[in-house]
Amino acid sequence: MALLESRTLNLIFKYVDDHVQNYIDLLKEAVSIKSVSCSPHLRDDCVTMVKWLLCKLKSLGVEAEECDIGTQTLPDGRPLRLPPVILGSLGNDPSKPTVCVYGHIDVQPAAKEDGWNTDPFHLTEIDGKLYGRGASDDKGPVLCWLNAIQAYQKQELPIPVNLKFVFEAMEESGSEGLEALLKQRKESFFHDVDYVCISDNYWLGKNKPCLTYGLRGLCYFFVEVTCASKDLHSGVYGGTVNEAMSDMVYLLSRLVDKDGTILIPNINNDVLPITDDERRQYQEIDFSVLDYKTELGSPSLLHKEDKTKLLMSRWRFPSLSIHGMEGCFSDPGTKTVIPRKVVGKFSIRIVPNQDPVVVERAVSEYLTKEWAKRGSWNKFKVSMVHGAKAWVTDPKCSNYEAAIRATKRVYNTAPDMTREGGSIPITLTFQEVTDKSVILIPIGACDDGAHSQNEKLDRRNYIQGTKLLAAYLYEIAKMGKN
Q1: What is the pTM of this model?
Q2: Is 435 a catalytic residue?
Q3: Whole-Å CA distances, 60 to 43, 55, 76, 117, 159
Q4: How many helices (H) does the chain have, and how many strands (E)?
Q5: Does position 336 have pLDDT exceeding 80, yes or no?
Q6: Is 171 a known active-site residue?
Q7: What is the chain's Cα-based Rg?
């Protein structure tokens, strides 16, 4: 049996190694489509991306459909049709387990003038790094699934599991419309799913693979202060009005201190306590504080640069970040204006068992009290514009056991078990809809620069990632139906 297993995966791995350039060419095609979901003028490109992927799936024998999820309303009130979601199936053998795969094919905005060294929509390889918007987030990992399936088929080996696919083109804009579709199809499309796998995050470092069992949630807030009906000349009106900008600076300064401590009372009440076993796991994780600090280009880090405290602060404790301000002057040069209204924007990354509703109430009550202390006669408003719960699961289950075995086969090392500081809200929805284990298997490395300039995916990670997902399917088949 062991000899047969080794032969099967060796054939898969050899095929992958022999077709590296084909995979890179495929990724180049995908990157060239400007599927920027937050830009209304590029919505047609998102639809083109969906149809491109649909064609590739059908060429592999996947039975796939484009699911209409309706329209969204733009800030100016215009309706805009959402790109369809792909639901696909490959195989229906009742004796095999069924794995549901999720990924997204939309990307963040990018332009050469933003500071890219290469054209962001033309995949460019430099020193083994594949530069291009979406290469790592998330077109490359999505294509790893297709590459793995093709390898099985070309080697005339049976795909060891049944597969279901969910691919969307709105993840970078909040996955609008997807949750409703998943819940609608709970008793039909998802009724026989045994495992769920997502590849939309990253290794903790550059060299060691990991598996992810938790994500923070997100509560995003707007706080508004209005002082006049129009912008004012500071030379004419300065000294006679209670300026909105001054009030805003005061309010934002009351949210978090210099050590990163959130100043909102009782905000940590529902955070799950740390167990001794969990603390040991953090101590064993391969993480270089020096490398992390160098990567950030920061002279110093919080928590006295203690590895365990840094990781816990990234993953399993809430954090508050101030993101920016709308309405004030921010262009180069000078402008002596008193803005009539400013909108401050901040978010709290929440963790189990924090609830967005409870967090919203705590933030609103606190800022309202701080506003009263300020004593300003200006108009004040705070609102939560987005709230998503955190997700965490038990990694001691067959889904993770299969992924650990697959990682050892490909990388010859056991993966670190990690959580992630970012949010993929749809992860929790998949868990609720299927009532099955969800795993995150990262393909890219920590320095891939997703959402940033010069996003890349290492050639090694792309190719080994294809092998990893192929091996995962092989190992999950041995776990059986769940």
Answers
A1: 0.90
A2: no
A3: 26, 9, 42, 35, 12
A4: 14, 20
A5: yes
A6: yes
A7: 24
